[in-house]
Amino acid sequence: MKGVVFTEFLGMVEEQFSADMVDDVIDDAQLPHGGAYTTVGTYPHQEMVAMVVALSQHSGIAVTDLVRAFGKHLFGRFVVGFPSFFQGVDNAFQFLSGIEDIIHVEVLKLYPDAELPRFDVEHHDAQRLVLLYHSPRHFEDLAEGLMQGCVAHFGEQIAITREPAAHGASHRFHLTRQS
After folding, report:
1. What share of the chain in percent tops pLDDT 90?
2. Which of 39, 58, 149, 169 is most buried (CB neighbours < 10 A)?
3. 172 by DSSP, 3-state: which?
4. 136, 45 in Cβ contact below 8 A?
5. What is the rounded average pLDDT of the residues 45-49?
């Protein structure tokens, strides 16, 4: 997992909780890297899991809720850090349906060794988008939070649901425009 994800997570913890909470999370997670991450480094995803579990224990907030909240936060940071990703994009469906062919292509230019999840578009029309999520790391909650952040960014009313999927995908996300 790229270091930018780690640094953004620690930034969110400091912003939403405190610098002391960052120290507590790092201490309790007993991280091999000691909480020292660079944005371009690559680190085991298990370290992120350990930090989220430690934050959950300190905050009393469920791990799944924290990971989704982090996804929303991370999307907002992507908007600030990578404005070119959003040029000419008018809505959440347009952005999300282009993850593989546009966004991930650009991410790999910046971080050639990134191990990205894969999103296959199963269905896309004006009212509904269905994405198949593939990742051996199983960060479905993070993917859902990123989608929620995308929907909020574009100011749309879109319901997001998910279900386990077959045929090699770990989950299927259903996004439906609300009237």
Report:
1. 74
2. 149
3. strand
4. no
5. 94
Residue 169, pLDDT score: 66
Contact in structure between 24 and 54 (CB atoms under 8 Å) = yes
Of the candidates 12, 5, 125, the one whose C-alpha atom is nearest the C-alpha of residue 69 is 12
160 bridge partner residues = 175
Q: How far apart are CA 148 and CA 100, in angstroms?
A: 18
DSSP bridge partners of 159: 176
Distance CA 81, CA 62 (A): 28
E strand residue ranges, the chain: 118-124, 128-134, 158-164, 171-177
Classify the phi-psi angles of 11: left when phi > 0, otherwise alpha if psi is within -120 to 50, otherwise beta: alpha
Residue type at 9 in one-letter notation = F
Q: Two tokens at 125?
A: 């029309």
- Residues 92-108 have pLDDT tens digits of 999 999 999 888 888 88
Measured distance CA(52)–CA(11) in Å, rounded: 13
